[in-house]
């Protein structure tokens, strides 16, 4: 992108979008591989430029604002036009944000827990008192699938207005198979209906009050995973990741490992909450 004045051919297909006369265009290009470490700080800014998006949704051309943009637009009009032109004068064009960790499917309001936290209660103490995950679980279990879908779609709208264009969405506020499936169906429906790019995670989040983590682990591996695989194979739901909360009072290191391996065995990628509150040796 640095040599932005180099002319590129106009796409054969009708162009999708021209963002013209932006005050700044932020680019994070420089190869197809993910940027890691210090390379993540390599950000280029083009001042007073326009960006053309081709019919495949790819960046086709970057040209200086003003005369060269007018010439590009004339060329486009002569060769089939462009679907949409947006005047970005005084604005910044930058890549969409990617939110890799969200709990966007839930019902219930936990704002009352702020008073407990302000009084010094820890995460574990709030959880033990019936708050935290357990409070949200009760509300999510009681919610209809239609209500969860409405809540999720509204949250995705808010995220997109703030610049997020791709996100991960987890289940995990059911703690029983029926509610987890309800959440996964909600995520599956949103993937088809919303403009947001969405990846889906089946999260083994917590142990229901009075139950044993070892028994829950066995149930997840021997019962829930086969049911999940059958639904994925049938195309009724779509899941990308298996996730588990490896933490004291939740799932042990070995239980978490078994759950993740079972997920990988059915073709899911592994993700986990680990070492969040205590050192659980998750880095191993």
Supply database-style keywords.
five-stranded mixed β-sheet; alpha/beta; 284 residues; five-stranded parallel β-sheet; elongated; single chain; 36% helix
Helix and strand pattern = EEEHEEEHHHHEHEHEHE
Number of helices: 8
The percentage helix is: 25-40%
Report the major sheet: 5 strands, mixed
Strand content: 15-25%
Quote the average pLDDT: 92
Poorly predicted runs of 5 or more residues: 1-8
Structural class: alpha/beta
* Separation, N- and C-terminal Cα atoms: 40 Å
* Coarse morphology: elongated
Characterize the quaternary organization of these chains. single chain
Radius of gyration equals 24 Å
State the total count of DSSP E strands: 10
What is the topology?
Blueprint: E1 15-27, E2 44-53, E3 59-64, H1 67-78, E4 82-87, E5 92-93, E6 97-99, H2 113-118, H3 123-128, H4 133-142, H5 145-161, E7 164-170, H6 177-193, E8 197-204, H7 213-233, E9 241-246, H8 253-265, E10 269-274
Parallel strand pairs: 1-4, 1-5, 6-7, 7-8, 8-9, 9-10
Antiparallel strand pairs: 1-2, 2-3
Describe it.
The chain is of the alpha/beta class and 284 residues long. 36% of the residues lie in helices and 24% in strands. The chain has helices at residues 67-78, 113-118, 123-128, 133-142, 145-161, 177-193, 213-233, 253-265, and strands at 15-27, 44-53, 59-64, 82-87, 92-93, 97-99, 164-170, 197-204, 241-246, 269-274. Helix 7 runs parallel beside helix 8. The longest helix is centred in the last third of the chain and has 21 residues, at 213-233. The model is unreliable at 1-8 (pLDDT under 50).
